[in-house]
Every structure is written in structure tokens, then in C-alpha cells.
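ok so i was messing around last nite and threw this chain in just to see what happens. nothing serious, just curious
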Amino acid sequence: MKADEVLIAHHDVLRGLLRGLAETTGEQLGRREELRDRLLRELEIHTQIEDELFYPAVRDVSPLLSLAHAEHRQIDDQLATVMRTATDDPEFTTEVRMLEKTLRHHTMEEEQRIFPQSHALGEERLEELGAQLRQRQLELTRSGGMRLIVRLKRAALRLV
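result:
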């Protein structure tokens, strides 16, 4: 898989998690907690593989990386709000929908503008980069360190 295909597949996972979270009700508190925690973990992994591997690789072919970084910060801010909102709060779904809208905008920007620019790297480099992204994503998914980061971030966000 090429780099953009790996990232699009993970975008689909993120969009699915947000859609599932938004569709839960206040009576499904356990499900909301589970989806919210999984979303936090997947967003951490996604941001890390983009920041470590993809963005540096496309730095010379895409002038839009500063925008992408700014959007990551905006997603982090909105995720923090979702994490701080009690799952039984009537505003929970509203906060999730706002995050969903921001993520949808960000993924569309990447998929429609940055990913086509990345094709200037050539097919071979995109395949190589795709393998690196998949490998790093797998490492982070299995990483005890990533689980610890997510637990600490979840706890910190809920304390604020």
C-alpha cells in the first residue's frame, strides 16, 4: 500500500469511531467510554505516524503542512473537550459532532490536497513510505508506552 492509502484507511477508522460515538445515547455510557478511549488512542497513533514519517517525507512537495499541523492542534483541543465532557452530559453528543466536523475537514484537506501533492515523490517512494507507516502504526498499537501515554493523557484531560 502506498502512504496515502495507509493514511486514508486509518482516516476511515477514525471517522467510523466518531460516527459510532456520535450515535450512542446517554444510556450507553459504557459504550461511550470505550469508543472515546479507543478514539483517543487511534488519534494519538495517527498524529504520531504523520508527524514522524509522512509530513517530513512530503515537506518539499507540499506547502500545506503548516495548515495540517494547525488542524492537528485544533483536533487535539476539541478532543480534550470531548474527554472532559461527562458521557452522560447532554452536551456530549454536541461536542463529539464538533470534533467529527473538524476531523472530517482535516481528512478531506489531506486526501484532496496533500496526498495528491505527495505523488510527486514517485510510486516507489510512496510504497516504501506506506510500509514504514504501517510498521510504525503496528508498533504503536502494540506499544506499552503508547498505552501509558494514552492513560496519562486521558487522566490529565479529565482532571482539568
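not much to say yet. Residues 3-159 form one domain.
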